[in-house]
Specification:
about 80 residues, mainly alpha
């Protein structure tokens, strides 16, 4: 099996995850595995529907090219 290392997780988040694991009678590692499995099982259709919803929300709008703003900022 693969291993994943997540760096720089805030201590308060780790504490909350430990409490959640304890509440579910699992180790922190087992709790994180369950969280990852649930996140990975999210149907791709749900994500595609969300993308389409956002596309409709912004349809017809024009946005400035941010590259020009970044270039201007760097030149300062």
């Amino acid at each position: 099996m693969a291993q994943v290392l997540v760096r720089d997780v805030a201590p308060e988040i780790v504490d909350r995850l430990k409490i959640r694991a304890q509440r579910n009678q699992r180790s922190l590692e087992a709790e994180l595995r369950v969280i990852f499995e649930h996140a990975a099982q999210e149907p791709i259709q749900d994500r595609q529907a969300e993308v389409e919803r956002i596309r409709v929300l912004f349809a017809g709008r024009n946005f400035d090219d941010s590259a020009a703003f970044l270039r201007e900022d760097r030149d300062r």
